[in-house]
Each structure stands twice: as C-alpha cells, then as structure tokens.
C-alpha cells in the first residue's frame, strides 16, 4: 500500500481509521486501491436523518474507510432525489458540517430516483479501470424499480461495486431482491450488496458497519478481476 498523502493521526477521524483497518484486514483487503463514492438519498423522507446527524456520521465513517483505499483523503458525494446532483468532494481535513453544507445548496427534496444517482456515479468514474466502491445510502425503494434494475445489470460490466445501505424501518424488499439478481443470467458478476442500518443508523457500532460494508466487496473484486473488468 502506498504511503498516506495525509497523516490521519492529525485528523479527528483517527479512531475510525483504525477501526476500518481492522475490518479491511479481516476481509483481506489491506493494500487494495479503489475510488470511493458516497451517494446520499435527499428525498423528503430523509429529513430526520439529516437533522439528527446520521448522514454526517455516515460520511465521516466513509471518509475514514476511503483513506485506506485512496490516499488523497477525498470522497465525492452525490446527493439525489428526483434527479442527481453533481459530485461534491469532502475531505478528511475539512469534513465537519460538510453534509449540511452540501444540503444547503441541494434544493428541494424530491422523490427517490436510484437510476439517476447510479448514472451520475458511472459518469464520474468515467473510463477508469480502477475499482470503484460506492456506498449508496437510501431510506426506501426507488420510484422506478425496472429502470434501476436495468442500470445495475448493465453496470455489472463496469469496474463499480454498489454497496447499498438502508436507513429506517423499511423492509427494503426491492434492495434485497436486487442483491440476489442471478449471475450470469442478468449480470456478468454480482456487483451489489445490501446492509440495513435500521432506525438509528448512528448507533450501529463502527466495527459492525465496516464489516457489513466489506461483506461482499472482496468477492466482487475477485470475480471482476477474473472477468477482466478490473485490472
């Protein structure tokens, strides 16, 4: 693994960084390089999770994890509702209040268009052959399940893994179904995982969150390499 460009011991995320390392080592991901993206649900039902700091807490945990995968200390954040916003970078050296700052310019909270958000990530990652690890947070099903399924299946040819994280009491039947779409009938490789963080996502222990985020990524990485999707 390349030396960190940023000294994490001088940031407020050092404990999270250490906890993330334990999970990465457990899943044999130490030294793996990947671009990390954070997608945030900005639909109307998400108001409480912005207000109570749950979204900010997730962003901080993702930053600490991303610092192991990509040593620039920056994660592009994409808000979405009826449509996707442009990526906004947040950094391990300037993260406090970052989510509120992005939200202040995000406009009206709309519906839940997963497909638009996924296309925004695909566009942002471009033609890169580097693996991309996408933490995709939502609190409910998309307004167009058919379109979302189509985008996910088409994206299985790309070097992108989608880790969905559910906030709230929803049963997330669609995301559970998405997680189980057959390979190779519908997808080249299994390119998605799902983790329900529950009604109080801030109370999920850091180690538990990281273990769940990393649960399916190693298998995807091995399958994507075998299929020539990533180098």
Q: Could you give a short description of this structure?
A:
It is built from nine helices and six strands; from the N terminus they run αβααββααβαβαβαα.
Mean pLDDT: 96
Q: What is the strand tally?
A: 6
Low-confidence stretches: none
Radius of gyration: 16 Å
Q: Tell me the domain tally.
A: 1
- Fraction of helical residues: 25-40%
CATH class: Alpha Beta
How many H/I helical runs?
A: 9
CATH fold name, please? Rossmann fold
What is the assigned CATH homologous superfamily?
von Willebrand factor, type A domain
Secondary structure class reads alpha/beta
> What is the correct CATH architecture?
3-Layer(aba) Sandwich
The shape, in one word, is globular
What is the makeup of the main sheet? Answer: 6 strands, mixed
Strand order of the largest sheet: 3-2-1-4-5-6
Distance between the termini: 16 Å
